[in-house]
């Protein structure tokens, strides 16, 4: 299921349309949006990818999905950066005296 809304821009009154298909195949999205032009707020589902190839539909990515990846990254335990100098080996940098 996905929703189309006409609330942003245009001269027609706002409207919301719900589309349903029994599975998430991309062919359903292409059929539903066959005549649509404009901006589509999508969640990164691969079934939408073919819609953006012609430029007729512009993708507005879902910030919640992006934010979640940053949040997950920040929850990972911090690791020490690798030691750049090998232990016991002479440095190629001149020493400061």
Can you tag this structure with a few keywords?
4 strands; 97 residues; two-stranded antiparallel sheet; alpha+beta; 2 helices; single chain
SSE map:
Blueprint: E1 2-5, E2 16-19, H1 26-32, E3 38-42, E4 57-61, H2 63-75
Parallel strand pairs: 3-4
Antiparallel strand pairs: 1-2
Our estimate of the beta-strand percent is 15-25%
Give the number of helices. 2
Order of SSEs: EEHEEH
The count of DSSP E runs of length 2 or more, i.e. the number of strands, is 4
What radius of gyration results from the CA coordinates? 24 Å
What is the rounded distance between the termini?
Answer: 70 Å
Shape descriptor: elongated
Helix content: 10-25%
Q: Can you give the mean pLDDT?
A: 75
Mind summarizing the main beta sheet? 2 strands, antiparallel
The SS-based structural class is alpha+beta
Low-confidence stretches: none
Strand arrangement in the largest pleated sheet: 1-2
Descriptive notes:
- By secondary structure, the protein is α+β, with helices and mostly antiparallel strands.
- It is built from two helices and four strands; from the N terminus they run ββαββα.
- The strands form two sheets. It has a two-stranded antiparallel sheet with strand order 1-2.
- The mean pLDDT is 75.
Quickly describe the structure:
This protein is α+β, with helices and mostly antiparallel strands.
